[in-house]
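Issue: ligand-bound run for zinc ion - logging full I/O for the record.

Environment: standard queue, default settings, no custom constraints.

Inputs:
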Amino acid sequence: MLTNKNEVDSVGMRQQNRKEAMKAVLLKGKSICVEEIPTPAPAVGEALLKVGKAGICNTDLELVKGYMEFEGILGHEFMGRVAQSPDKDWIGKRVVGEINIPCRSCATCSDIDPKHCPSRKVLGIHRKDGVFAEYVTLPLDNLHVLPSMVSDREAVFVEPLAAAIAIFDQIRLDRNDEVLVLGDGKLGLLVAQVMQTRTTKIFCAGHHPRKLALLQKRGIQATQDAQEWSKKFDLVIEATGASKGIEDALRFVKPKGKIVAKSTFHGMAKIDFSALVVNEIQLIGSRCGSFVKALEFLNNESIQLEEMVDADFPLTDAKKAFDRAEDPEVIKVLLTP
Ligand SMILES: [Zn+2]
Ligand SMILES: [Zn+2]
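Outputs:
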């Protein structure tokens, strides 16, 4: 009798945890629409997550313009709760999820870095439906349990924060190095705050007084015109999100200096290649980073995340949310399913 009751309860739980249909924000061609579609079924090794909050990132705006030629459910920055899992211990856990889904069996995965797997899927970016939906599936390997001190809103920043912290794995930074961050968008503001933990000489150039003021409040030198400092920098981090950013980075880097390039956009960038060669500049591309390190960072350092949220729209208002996110004065726009 007891066994039967437990079975009924667990079936009941499953039905409660997973609706048959869900609302999702789909990119079709270059337009977005909110549709009711079947709730995805997790594949082997995957969990079904109920999305709690998601963030619109510059990459999402670029995807709408044609970057990666992606079609499907958008979104890769999120937090949620595990609704179904092959490992029952995960059920109900509050989690964030890494966005790269590598094959874990090829030579690139074993010898270089799984995030560069040639047959990888990338959540909401490449061959994998994203998180602007009520539910999403992800491999258990991708999940990280959120510490209780990290709020739902802060958790949405774990992915871009990991991308900012990835710079520390790629370059050695001396305490006295002068660092310039180009761009005061979502990623630029995160990068500047993250770099401030390793150098006292941190500068940021952007276009928006309100965003720059956020950094100035934290003791970061910020301006709308980097020329006013009339100096060059040991390290320039290009996070403008625009093709022109790399030209500026070359103008402001010292000979033998380094440029870390963070922007992804639809289209090509033009650079003065000879300037790069003659000045012996190291140009380093930089993508995703470790969620473990990002969560450690949130635990050990103070960083202003909640202040970066300008709006939080219901998922059904995704079009309005995207319009808002396109406004250059706005920092972060969230979606709540
Ligand atoms: Zn992103
Ligand atoms: Zn692989």
